[in-house]
Write a structure and sequence with these properties.
332 residues; alpha+beta; Arc Repressor Mutant, subunit A; 3 domains; eight-stranded mixed sheet; two-stranded antiparallel ribbon; 7 helices; elongated; DNA-binding; transcription; Homeodomain-like_sf
Length: 332
DNA sequence: AAAATAGACAACCGCACCTCT
DNA sequence: TAGAGGTGCGGTTGTCTATTT
């Protein structure tokens, strides 16, 4: 049995909203608050679909909306966030107070796309248009390619955890570097969220190479070293499923130093704007599954960035048919 | 001045996810 | 655990306005 329609289509208005309808909706929400969009139209005396009311309120009538043109800073932030998150407009909107996902989406399609094209940048991949199309396959280490086939992001604000999912054509190193840049430049005026990125990657090992588990000698001035290839059966080509979780958090809970303007409500991230005044750390932890092999194999992915303590590999490689490693990617 | 075209943005649609029972 | 209902999201379409021919 199919789902019942969200509203009586025969008795609902469509198209542009009139001033009277707007006023009715505003009045109703001022009195009763948001919520239960399905029953709202009837209660408010509107001949509209609940979804339509919700959209009208969120995209147009909400009092905290910022009207007017996008600033250059907003442009750049949108571009950066899009390179990280893809077409996750609601996520991007969450970082732009007073802007809606719909507005940003439209703005992207009408302005930013063109702007990037004029810069010679592909709006979808954020790569140079002159660059050879690599699709989603990015060389990450000698004799290794990494293909990100899917990714999931968990944003865990203190008050309200949110599960986000997105597909990304970026490799973890690129995304990590981008996140790091944002944090360093303070353009990511994040609330004090803990972000957990789960990258599901397919590592295509093209040559047999044994991993060892050592990251000593890493320098902090370099780009983070790329994952070492997953060991492969001699001469064979194998694809590995690798789930990585990335945590962006605070260096230590006790060392937090925040100037925070906390939203009174956790319902929207738009008003949440806490400036990071601490040194965040980025941490990868992951589990690598080796579904097609029988021997226990280690995957060591130790990346480090910034001026943090150098040290030995933090891997906690366990033996067994399925390996679990902790991959620490630290920025201090 | 009128018609054609392009640009901008509001709104709709269908699907996916989440929660509740 | 499965199904139903509610909500949110992303892609697409429709409509209005500005510009060009």
């Amino acid at each position: 049995m199919g789902r019942s329609p969200c509203c009586e289509k025969a008795h609902t208005n469509k198209g542009a909203w009139t001033k009277e309808e707007d006023q009715r909706l505003i009045d109703y929400i001022r009195t009763h608050g948001e919520g239960c969009w399905r029953s709202l139209p009837k209660s408010a005396g509107l001949l509209r679909c609940g979804k339509s009311c919700r959209l009208r309120w969120i995209n147009y009538l909400r009092p905290d909306l910022k009207r007017g043109n996008f600033s250059e800073e907003e442009d750049e932030l949108i571009i950066k966030l899009h390179s990280l998150l893809g077409n996750k407009w609601s996520l991007i909107a969450g970082r732009l107070p007073g802007r809606t996902d719909n507005e940003i989406k439209n703005y992207w399609n009408t302005h930013i796309k063109r702007k990037l094209m004029s810069r010679g940048i592909d709006p979808q991949t954020h790569r140079s248009l002159n660059e050879k199309p690599t699709s989603a396959v990015v060389p990450v280490a000698p004799a290794t390619t990494t293909t990100i086939t899917a990714a999931a992001v968990t944003v865990t604000p203190p008050a309200k955890p949110t599960q986000l999912d997105f597909k990304s054509a970026h490799d973890p190193a690129q995304s990590m570097a981008e996140i790091s840049r944002l944090l360093q430049s303070n353009t990511m005026k994040a609330n004090n969220s803990i972000l957990d990125f789960k990258f599901q990657t397919v590592v295509k090992a093209e040559s047999a190479e044994e991993n060892n588990c050592s990251s000593s000698g890493m320098t902090t001035d370099e780009e983070p070293p790329l994952p070492r290839p997953v060991s492969a059966a001699a001469g064979g080509e194998r694809r590995e499923e690798l789930n990585l979780e990335l945590t962006i958090g605070l260096a230590t809970p006790s060392s937090r130093s925040l100037t925070t303007t906390r939203p009174s409500s956790a319902s929207s991230g738009n008003s949440a704007e806490s400036k990071l005044q601490f040194h965040p750390y980025l941490q990868f932890s992951g589990t690598a599954a080796t579904p097609t092999t029988t021997a226990a194999e280690a995957v060591c992915l130790c990346w480090q960035l910034g001026g943090g303590a150098r040290g030995n590999c933090h891997c906690q490689c366990s033996s067994g048919g399925r390996q679990q490693q902790q991959i620490r990617y630290q920025y201090c």
